[in-house]
Amino acid sequence: MSLRNALRIARRELRGGLRGFWILLGCLALGVAAIAAVGSVRAAIEAGLARDGAVLLGGDAEISLTYRFADPAERDWMDRNAEAVSEIVDFRSMAVVGGGDRADRALTQVKAVDAAWPLVGLAALDPPQPIAQALGPAASGLPGAVMDPLLADRLGLAIGDRFRLGLQDFELTARLVAEPDSGAAGFGFGPRTLVLREALRDSQLLGPGTLFDSRYRLLLADGTDPRSLRARWRAEFPDSGARWRDSRRGAPGIGTFVDRIGAFLVLVGLTGLAVGGVGVSAAIRAYLERKTEVIAVLKTLGASGRTIFLAYFLQVGLLTLLGVFGGLLLGAGLPLLLAPLIEARLPVPAVFRAYPGPLAEAALYGVLTAFIFTLWPLARTREVRAAALFRDPGGGRGRWPGGLALAGVAVGILGLVAAAAWFSGLPRLTLGAAGGILAAFLVLVSAAILVRRAARRAARSPRLRGRTALRLALGAIGGPREEALSVILSLGLGLSVLAAVGQIESNMRQAIQRELPDRAPTYFFVDIQPDQLEGFRARLDGDPRVSKVETAPMLRGIVTEINGRPARETAGDHWLLRGDRGVTYAATPPGGTKITEGAWWPADHDGPPQVSMSDEVAREIGLRLGDSIAVNILGRDITATITSFREVDFSTAGIGFVMAMNPAALQGAPHTHIATVYAAPEAEAAILRDLAGRFPNITAVPVREAIDRAAGALSRIAAATSWAAGVTLVTGFIVLIGAAAAGERARVFEAAVLKTLGAVRSRILLSFALRAAILGAAAGLVALVAGGLAGWAVMRFVMETGYRFDEVSALAIVLGGILATLLAGLAFALRPLAARPARVLRAQD
C-alpha cells in the first residue's frame, strides 16, 4: 500500500516540472557522458585493432627471434605449416649522406624485407608504385630504398639521391606514406627506412652479435588455430626463445597502452562524477528544503516516513535515469560526431559505433553515484515532523540519517569501487584513486568548516570596522547556509585533480628536459664489434673534451624460467618478462657497483653460471639468493644461480643491466659492445663524424633526441589527462552555478535588508564579489595542497625521482578558483541588486 501511495505522490509532485533539478540532471549527464565517451573511443580502437589485426601484424601469426635468424629446421617448420612466410629484419642504423667532413648523418629504424612482404595490406608510397619496384635495382644500378618523409627532409634527400647504410649505398626511390604493419613495429628510435634484406649483404650491419630482431610473418590456411600452432612450435623447439603473436592481438603494445590510458581516464572521469555528486546532493537538499511544508502536511494527514521516503526516492530515481540517459546519448553521440577528426589523429584504425559495454559501464557509475549522494538527504525526509508547519522550518536539517541509510551509502561506495576495479582491470590504481578521492573529500570538508569558523571570527574582529563590504562577505561565509561547503567541495575537488596533473607534468618535464640531460651521456653507441673496441676507445680517450667513456659487453636474452618453473608462474606480468632484456658479463664488479646482498664471483670462476640481479627487480619478483633463473640467449637456455643483488640506477640514461653473469657462462656466444660517451656539446659533431666514418656499422643514438621523444609522448598523455580533468572542472562549475542559484533567494532578502539600512548597490555588489573571491581562493589553496601532495607522492613513489613545487601552475590554480566563483556568483547577483526592498520585505509576512 505504501508503494502505491508513494507512486501517486511522486507522480503528482513531478507535475510541477523539472524546476530545481536541472543541476542534478546536468551533473549526472556530464559525468556519465565523459566516462561513456572515453569508453566508446577505447572500444572503437579495440574493434579497429581486432578487425585489422592481420594487417597491423603483417600476417596471421608472427614468430620473433632475438639477434639471430631461424635455423634450417625452424624455417622448414614454418614453410610446412603456413601458406606463405615473409622474413623481416628490424634494427637501428645511421643513414649517411655525402662523405668526409660534409657528411650528414641521422638515426633510422631500418626494416629489411623480402620479396614476399607485405603478406597482408599494401604500402603507400610517394610517388605511387609497387613496393617491389621501389626496392628493386634503381636506374643507377644501386638497390632502391624507401624512407620516411621526416628523415628524407632531415637529410635533404630528393627522389634519386644517394645515401648509405653501413658500407652499402642506396638510391631513394620513394617516400613512405603508410606502412601496413606499423602496428607491430613497437617503439623506434628513428624514422623508418625500408630496404630489401639481400641488399644489406655487404653492409656489415648484420654481423655476429649485432642487435637486430628477425620476424617471420605467417599466412595461415583458413580454419587454422593459432594457439594450437603455437603449442606445436613450443613442443618441437622448446629452447628457441621465440616470441609469438597472432592477429587476434596484432598490436599488443598499442592495445595495452589504450587499455591502461583508457582505464586511467575513466578513473579521472569518476572523479568528475564525484564532483557532480556534490551538486546532485546539494540540488536534492535544496529541493527537499522547499518541500518541508509539503512533507509536514503529508505527515499531518497520516503518511508514514517510509511512504514519504519512497515517494521522493522514486522521483529522484526517475530523474537519475533521465540524467543518465542524457549522458549516454551525449557520450555515445560525440565520438560518432567527431569520428572523422579522431580517426585523423589516431595512429591506429578505429571502428566508431555505439558500443553497449562502455555505455552500460557509464550508466552503472552514474546510477551508483546518484544513489550514494542522494540517499543521505532523502533519508532526512523521515525526520521531518508535522510541527514543521508551525516551527522548526529547517525540517530537521543537520540531523544524521538512520543507520540503515548510512549502511546503504557504504554499500553504494563499495559497489562503485568494486565496479571500477573490475572494469578498469587495475585494482591497485582504482583503490588508490578511491582512497585519494575519499581523502580529498575529508580534507575539503574540513577546510570548509575551518573557513566558515575563521570567517565568522574575522567578521566580528574590530579591525574590520569601516570595511563594510568585507565584513558582510565574511559574515555570509560564516553563516548557517552551506554555500561554503558546496563551493569548496565542488571546485576544490576539480582543481585538486588539475593541480596534481599540472605538478606531475611539470616535474616530469624538469626531470626529462633539464635535470636528466645534465647527468646523461651525449651518445649511446651500439653494435661495437670486439675487434673495434680498442680503436673506438683510442679515439675518445685522447679527446680532452670527452669527460667519460663507459663500455660493456652486451647480449640480449629472454627470461624463460625461475627456479625451474615457467617465469610467468613466478613473476606474473612483470616488465622483465615482456620481451628481451640486456645481459652483460664481468669478472669483477664494474666501478661504482654497490652490492646490497651476497657476493660477486671470483674473477677466475669457471664453474656453474652465476648471475647478479638488480635488487629492485628482485624485490618486485620475490627473488632470493640461491634462486635460479634461466635466460634464453641466441636460442640456448643458460640457467644461472643468483649469488648477489646490486643497485642499478637507470635514471641517468647510462649503462645499467638487470642481469650480469660471470664471463665463463657466456663464453663463445657472439656479442657486441655498447658504450656511453659524455662529451662537451662542441665535440659532438666531430665524435660522430670520426667514429661513424671509421666504423660505419656502429649505430649512435643521440640521447637528447631520445629524451625529446619521451617528452613528446609525456605531453600527449598529459594533454589527454588535462582534458579529462577539464570535464571535472566543468562539472564543478555547474555545481557552483547551482549553489549560486540556490542562494539567490537568500541574497535577494539580504540585499533588501542592506538597502533598507542605507547600503548602495556598489557596496552590496562588492560584498558579493568578495564572498565569491574568498571562497574561490580557499578552494584553490586547498586544491593546491592536495594536488601538490598527490604530485609529490607520484613522483616520489611511482616515478622514484625528486619533486619540485611548480609555482606557475599553483598560481594558475588559485586564480582559476577565484575567477570561477566570481563568474558563478556574479551571474546571480543582478536580481538581488534590482530587487525593491519594500516588495521583498512585505513578501516575508
TrEMBL record:
Keyword Membrane assigned: yes
Ranges annotated as spanning the membrane: 21-41, 261-288, 309-342, 362-379, 400-423, 429-451, 723-743, 764-790, 810-830
Record keywords: Cell membrane, Membrane, Transmembrane, Transmembrane helix
Residues annotated as domain ABC3 transporter permease C-terminal: 268-382, 725-832
Entry membrane topology: Multi-pass membrane protein
Family matches, as InterPro entries: ABC3_permease_C, MacB_PCD, Membrane_comp_ABC_pdt
Entry's localization field: Cell membrane
Main localization category: membrane
Name of protein: Drug:proton antiporter
Species annotation: Paracoccus spongiarum
